[in-house]
Amino acid sequence: MENVPENGADRGATRRTVLRAGAAAGLLSMIPSAWGQGAAPPVVLITGTSSGFGRLMAEGFARQGARVVATMRETRGKNASAAAELAALGSSGLAIEIVEIDVLSDDSVAAGVARAMDSAGRIDVLVNNAGIVVPGPVELQPPRYFASNLETNMGGALRMFRAVLPHMRDQGRGTIIQMSSALGRAIDPMLGGYCASKLAVEAAADALAYEVAASNIEVAIVQPAGAYPTGLQAKAVRYWEEMVTALDATERRKLDIYARHVEAMLTDLAPDPELDPKEVSDAVVALAAMEFGTRPARLTVGPYKDGIDPVNVAHDQLQSDMISHNRIADLLTPR
Fold first, then answer.
1. Which residue out of 50, 181, 197, 281 is catalytically annotated?
2. How confident is the model over 24-53, as pLDDT tens digits?
3. Is position 78 annotated as part of the catalytic site?
4. Would you call 228 a catalytic residue per the annotation?
């Protein structure tokens, strides 16, 4: 596998209200005062900060006064220049520390979180951002390629949940922000593995939100809804090309069946240059700065927001109705 890519009860209107992307700038302006008042700045650990949303969030949180633990894999290897760039921002006065974490490795996650705790003493906000897209028709994807979406996007999040939650519980409070996608709700052909991973991580994050509420820990999901130019698309094309190379002769002949599908997929994987990924990172920073207990359970940002929001509203209503009958409903909302 050398070529396989790596890496409550009804909470009320405030938890079901979706933050408008256009409000992010206004909320950002209030963050310094919200995080001030003489209190220590919040410690924010972010995964996948070598590029894209993660890189922007690391700088964005730091510029708003947070102490950032920016994590990525291979800080001395292929991500050395990205790590050095963030480290330079730290040297210029921003509170950014680079910590190596490969979310595919239990040992790496445990060691990275331990280092963050030794250095910062706490983790107030975890942003699970690391993720990949391995595209292709479900029929032709060898299980290990299909599963690589799940292992990084779902398995990586699970490892981070397990490592960080005990520390947040000991602190008496914490916030987890799980990066997902509009494709955690809507299904796109040729992206079955990616959609499956985002559906899975949203289900896990929803369950987690109920389970850790009694420990005063909040969980929110962010769904970018557009082809933001983050570099993810170019990597997806490379993964596709690697997978095609790995197909045997019989499977490769089947590519003819999917010729139009593949053409459409490669066209649609082109990022939209009119979209600014900073609007997503700004919205995440603003979401994290909201008063505890008022954050929406889901935040959708992007041009397809109007299509995804009604699905989220229906989901929230179903969940509220179901949880209201749960025998431990009193435990399922943060105090």
1. 50
2. 555 555 555 456 555 789 999 999 999 999
3. no
4. no
- Contact in structure between 206 and 220 (CB atoms under 8 Å): no
Instruction: Please pick, among 145, 148, 180, 304, the residue that the annotation labels catalytic.
Output: 180
Q: Which of 145, 181, 198, 210 is catalytic?
A: 198
Best CA proximity match to 334, nearest among 178, 176, 203: 176
Which residue among the candidates 145, 148, 181, 194 is catalytic per the annotation?
Answer: 194
| Catalytic residue check, 198 | yes
53 within 8 A of 61, measured Cβ to Cβ: no
Alpha-carbon span 192 to 18, nearest angstrom: 26
Angle at 129 between CA 323 and CA 206, to 5 degrees: 5
Architecture of domain 13-303: 3-Layer(aba) Sandwich (3.40)
- For 221-238, give one letter per residue: b (16+ CB within 10 A) or e: bbbbbbbbbbebbebbee
Q: What is the pTM of this model?
A: 0.90
**Whether residue 50 lies in the annotated active site:** yes
Residue with structure tokens 């909201």?
290
Burial class (CB in 10 A: 0-12, 13-18, 19+), 28: middle
